[in-house]
Structure formats: C-alpha cells, structure tokens
Amino acid sequence: MAFELNNVVPWGRTFTEYQQMFNLSANDVTKKIVSIGDGPASFNAEMHAMGKQVTSIDPLYQFSTDDIRKRIDETCVEVIGQVRANADKFVWNNIKDVEELQEIRMTAMNHFLRDFDQDCFRQRYIKHAMPAKTSFADNAFELGLSSHFLLLYDNLGLKFHTEAIREIMRICPELRIFPILNLNAGAPVFFDELLEVLGSDFNIDIQKVDYEFQKGGNQMLVIKSKT
C-alpha cells in the first residue's frame, strides 16, 4: 500500500524531549544514532547543530518541504483540539497548557522544516518505510531510537513490529522505544507476546524515564543485542 501524505498527522518533538524520553546521557548523544519514525521532530536538526550524528528514517521524507508544511498546517488545529478535549489524559507539569504545547510543537516542526529543506541530497533524512529492510550495513549505528511509532501503532500487528525491531537490531546493537503505550494510552495488545518472541534473541529491559506527558507514559523499552 502506498504511503499517502493525507493520512499522516505530523507532530514533532524537540531535542530536550528526546533527551528525557530516552534517558540520553552525555555519552549517548556522541554515538552514531539512527532514529526511526522521526517525522517532523527537531531532534536531528538540533543534534546536527551540535555536531552530533543522527540519521532519521521515515516515509514522510519522500515529500517536499512545502507539502509537509501544508500537511502540518492542515492537521495542527485538529490535533490541538483533540488534546484540549482530552486534557485530563495528560500531565501538565513541564508543559503548562494546550497553548504552550502548540507553541513547542510548531517551533520543533518549523525547525525541522528549515533543516529538511537544506539537507544536501537528504543525507540525514532517509525516506524508508519499516519493516522493509534498510540499505544500511550490519551494525552501521551504535544506538537506535523510536519515538511515538513502534508499539504506539499496535493496530499494525505483532508481525509488523517484530520484523521492524529485528531490522533495527540488525543495524544497531541497542534500541530504545518510547512510550510503551498504544494510541489509547493502554498497553499494546501484543506486548507480552512481543517480549516473549524477542526475549530468546535479545536482552530486554523496561526503564522509567524523566518524561511523562501522556498519563502513565513514563517508561521506555530497551532492547540490546546479546553479542
């Protein structure tokens, strides 16, 4: 099935949020990182400005800057309206209200758009749809991140997530996934089965993080190679 922009709801997060969501240490950010399903996050742009290495993977990157900007403008009001209607499902500590949330998200996405528009030959933003095999060599990266993609869309099924995770683990020895929630803020329907399937090949840990915006969304799944 073709990836269609009109089915995408782009929503970008910042370097600071990635740092908190994934417990990124000063050493972690010096690693060669691959970030899957990044969408219009400003993480790559901010890391690049600091001289750090991040490669972002998302089918969204097949579209032009103008097309992505248009889609952001089309969906932002709708998303903010949904958040406002469900404000009780979120933790309003670091982000004080819906207006501040919109400002943070739009700032991040505008930062992404400026960087994406300038990225020469798309060297840091790779158009690719998981779980298909990537073009990267085994262990091409040191750390993998997945923000609000893997586990969140549990409607894609166990097979999709298993194959995607195995491909990511082929190209890096460690993967961190945040949050451990689905779109309804519950546990992914196949979560226990996924852990069982992956447990024979990888070391798996669930860690608390210093970030919680969705209520109950303060844990990440850490998967590491056994070799």
Characteristic terms for this protein:
6 helices, 7 strands, globular, 7-stranded mixed β-sheet, alpha/beta, 35% helix, Rossmann fold, SAM-dependent methyltransferase, 227 residues
List SSEs in N-to-C order.
Answer: HEHEHHEEHEHEE
State the separation between the terminal residues, measured CA to CA. 36 Å
Task: Describe the main β-sheet briefly.
Answer: 7 strands, mixed
Number of domains: 1
**Shape estimate:** globular
CATH class: Alpha Beta
* Mean residue pLDDT: 93
CATH homologous superfamily (4th level) name = Vaccinia Virus protein VP39
With helices defined by DSSP (H or I, 4 residues minimum), what is the helix count? 6
Radius of gyration: 17 Å
Q: Tell me what the CATH architecture is.
A: 3-Layer(aba) Sandwich
CATH topology: Rossmann fold
Based on helices, strands and strand pairing, what is the structural class?
alpha/beta
The tally of strands reads 7
As residue ranges, the low-confidence spans are: none
State the helical fraction: 25-40%
Give me the side-by-side strand order of the main sheet.
3-2-1-4-5-7-6
Estimate the strand proportion: 5-15%
Oligomer: single chain
Organism: Mucilaginibacter gossypii
Protein name: SAM-dependent methyltransferase
